[in-house]
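Give me the fold.
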Amino acid sequence: LFNDVPLGVRLFGTRNNNQWQYNIGAFRRIEKDTNSGLNDIGQRLRDDDVFAFNLYRQDFPVLGFTLQGTVVHNINREDDSNQFDRNGFLVRPAAIGDMRQHRYRVTYLGVNGDGHFGRANISASTYPAFGSDTRGTLAQQPQDIRAAFAAVEASYDFSWLRTRATVLAASGDKDPFDNKATGFDAIFENPQIAGADTSYWIRQAVPLIGGGGVALSGRNGVLPSLRSSKDQGQSNFVNPGVLLAGIGADADVLTTLRVIGNLNYLRFLNTSSVSVLRNQGTVDREIGTDVSAAIQYRPFFNQNVVLNASVAALVPGRGLKQLYQTDRTQYSVLFNVLLTY
């Protein structure tokens, strides 16, 4: 929902030997560098504020499981001027609809859990979102935000092998021209689910309009939010939503070597918004099948040095074939080194 390094203040505390933990924070987002995605401290702060409160309860409802309740309020007031990135592309507002500036307020109420029930590991999250947008880019009128998100990933360990199953759903907008925006969008997402580091759909940006000026989904994102940029753009609650169902496995073949595999099937929940933007009739809901494999090598048995190599393929379904007029499978090959010191 919000994974960033902003400027802010935080009050936190614990009680009963850390069984209860809480955080209260207020943050102002920093403009990102267009090409690196890092904070660009040379620019002025964004007029985009995030207020967050969460409360953790460890070992609830069973030993080994942590339950969290959270409230996040996002106030975006970036409606005073157009913002272009360092490559000359318009990022605020997004280049869709009438391209008029707008501001929005949205509140997320979340219930999250992580831990295990016996040998079964569970990570789960759900967020309804509600608020208002002063001007929908397609509706050209104020809109009430009413959206929802839910995801669960369950895994089970068999000695050196962990098997996983994932289900994720984010609501989509049914009518981009009415006074309701029902497509779920995050503030600044970075999903760690469904093979995120290897998945083509999550890892790669999928351009839609203007050679990538507006993307179907952004880099390191699972939501098809139709934003100009995940780093510099505004949230967009008029989007097709997504349904993901996947399976995967992690195999520790050596103490230093892990082999990872994932298979995800993806569908839009409602394609009204993309049908309007592409002006080509009703688009099918099937996105396609995402298959990926990776190896992870830790030469020193710890997280100080981690080498990753992965390959992924997105086999287009009927919806992507209609949007891009091609049935070619898309491929991605990735190598990276993570250093922690």
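The first helix runs from residue 200 to 203.
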